[in-house]
Amino acid sequence: SKREGFATIPDVSWDDIGALKSVREELQTAIVEPIKQPELYAAVGISAPTGVLLWGPPGCGKTLLAKAVAAESKANFIAIKGPELLNKFVGESEAAVRRVFMRARSSVPCVIFFDELDALVPRRDDAGSESSARVVNTLLTELDGLSERQGIYVIAATNRPEIIDEAMLRPGRLETPLFVDLPGPDERVEILRALLRNKPIENIPEIAEVARKCNGYSGADLGALLRQAGQHAIRRRVTRLELQDFEYAATMIEGSVGKEAMQRF
Ligand code: ATP
Fold first, then answer.
1. Residue 202 backbone dihedrals phi, psi, to 5 degrees
2. What gap in Å lies between CA 20 and CA 179, rounded to an integer?
């Protein structure tokens, strides 16, 4: 399903995402509702935003959120990593950007997800390169050409919002910035629950204790923790994970988002 030119509806629901309640609600109002009930927006007489920017530390659910938005609104999903579109040949990167929107237009309703947006549209003054200015201008033109009536919505993600060209963030473009934060202790419990949903080990009683030990862990780190704990249980020849499996796993995994990295946010 990753073939070029092939857009599909992802298999991720809101229930697969732990914590991030207010971000989910914002996305529900900003994108899911307008796709599912365009008449509501028409009745109020306002237009829905066509773009949002998810920003925050790595591994905390930005990609997952974007997929859930598409799935919950039964829209097609096109995922692009910013650097993928960059090409050293003159004009090729802009053509690649335009092709993404062409694909979207042929599969509406559609959510386009630009991951690592900063690589694609760095501030034009900083980068100083003519080619990156052309890419920024092309993406701006495409964003300005969208209206919610066309059924194309853009979700962009970045770990480094400060280096994105500011023009991208103006009204009518990626006008809604949503912060996707590193989870705290209670949120880690919710994420572990979401990751264990529909699994045989769904209801381990030690989950809150596990979550408390995982300071600095992202959602991605918690996923890695579960895999390590599962392997440890298998080595012990048991199928029911216990606290000792998680304690072992926690010694193997270091929270990937250190204090230093978090100071940026
Ligand atoms: P990056 O900035 O590195 O692209 P990201 O913010 O897009 O990271 P995701 O790719 O969404 O992060 O998360 C990676 C994996 O971590 C997910 O596939 C999921 O298994 C787990 N994960 C992260 N956050 C959550 C969450 N809030 N709830 C459930 N699982 C999560």
1. -55, -40
2. 9
- Per mean pLDDT, which of 142-146, 153-157, 257-261 is the most reliable? 153-157
156's CB contacts (< 8 A; 6+ apart) are: 51, 52, 53, 54, 113, 114, 115, 117, 168, 174
Is the model's pTM score more than 0.90? yes
- Centroid of ligand 1 to alpha carbon of 221 (angstroms): 9
CB of 219 shorter than 6 A to ligand 1: yes
Find out whether the beta carbon of 38 lies less than 6 Å from any atom of ligand 1.
no
Question: Model confidence at 41, in pLDDT bands (50, 70, 90)?
Answer: confident
Rounded to the nearest angstrom, the distance between the alpha carbon of 128 and the centre of ligand 1 is 33
Q: Which two tokens stand for residue 120?
A: 């694609």
Ligand 1 centroid – CA 192 distance (Å): 12
Ligand 1 pocket test target in 52, 53, 63, 182 with most atoms within 8 Å of CB = 63
Backbone angles phi, psi at 226, to 5 degrees: -60, -40
User: pLDDT tens for residues 192-243?
Assistant: 999 998 877 766 778 888 898 899 999 999 999 999 999 999 999 998 888 8
The single residue listed with the structure tokens 């298998």 is 234
Residue nearest to atom 11 of ligand 1 (CA): 61
| Top mutation candidate among 64, 159, 187 for ligand 1, by most atoms within 8 Å of CB | 64
Buried b (16+ CB within 10 A) or exposed e, 59-78: bbbbbbbbbbbbbbbebbbb
CA neighbor of 174 nearest in space, from 151, 144, 149, 150: 144
